[in-house]
Amino acid sequence: MAGRIPQQFIDDLLTRIDIIDVIDSYVTLRKAGRNHQARCPFHDEKTPSFTVSQEKQFYHCFGCGAHGTAISFLMDYTGMNFVEAIEDLASRAGLEVPREGGVFHEDKNITELYELMELVVRFYCRQLREHPDAARAVEYLKSRGIDGQLAAGFELGYAPPGWENLITALGTSNASLLRLAKTGMIINRDNGGYYDRFRDRIIFPIRDQRGRAIGMGGRVLDNDDTPKYLNSPETPIFHKGRELYGLYQARRNKHDLQQLYIVEGYMDVLALSQHGVHNSVATLGTAVTEDHLQQ
Ligand code: ZN
Q1: Ligand 1 geometric centre to CA of 70 (Å)
Q2: 109: three-class secondary structure by DSSP
Q3: Ligand 1 centroid to 40 CA: how many Å?
Q4: What stretches of the chain adopt beta strand conformation (E)?
Q5: Mean pLDDT of 27-39
Q6: Regarding predicted confidence, which is higher, 80 or 34?
Q7: Residue 152 CA from chain centroid, whole number
Q8: Residue 1: predicted pLDDT
Q9: DSSP H helices in 42-133
Q10: Taking CA 231 as the corner, what is the angle to CA 188 and CA 193, rounded to the nearest 5 degrees?
Q11: Of 86, 96, 156, 218, which has the fewest CB atoms closer than 10 Å, so is most exposed?
Q12: pTM of the model as a whole
């Protein structure tokens, strides 16, 4: 991390973006006279008392007193910290965030890892639809009451049997192999070379609050196989003790999320969602941490 973000940049940024667009991307706003309105995302209510002023670039709730700018909205609504909120707004405005003592670039290598993880998600999703062995995975999901629509909503995938499916698909150069290894999707062999971490498993992609794919969970098809669940290891973009599976989907499903159930695992989140309970999240094989509660 570089130095502080200059105040002048923050002031300019707030004039470049429109708070209406920012809030409307999470909470559907309706125009009402000079302002925009919605049911307040910060307290439970039947009639809208949450208003957003385009002119003043402020929101205010007459019910609970919630009040602030696009920055405080992102922080309070999504749990982003201050710097993350600035970075989010800057990327909406197509700006780089400058730092005192030089322009700060998100490490190019980190950006590449996020991009690669999207390809991995798509690869495993496609295998669930197309691979000749995927029928077993589909059967298993059906036996647990998970239908195609829910599986698609959570982007469930299938890692076929075999040691080099992902490597063959995405590890076409030394550089791409190194990146795949950095994401934890493939593992370095002691005697050189790599192999796929996830084999013959149902894949649960894990997204962060901003919707970026950061890791995977994998479940065996046969209960006798071990370990029953396997997660991505800690990587530069994946920190188990901080992330909650299903939070991104829960927010997308319900904009004014007031409550969350914390459950044990992926399948619990899916089973609840299948029965209409869309506000549940799972920790990733760890006890609940303070970071989880912050999220
Ligand atoms: Zn309110």
Answers
A1: 16
A2: helix
A3: 5
A4: 30-32, 35-38, 50-53, 58-61, 67-68, 98-99, 102-103, 157-159, 186-188, 194-196, 201-207, 213-220, 229-231, 261-263, 280-282
A5: 94
A6: 34
A7: 15
A8: 47
A9: 70-78, 82-93, 108-130
A10: 10
A11: 96
A12: 0.68
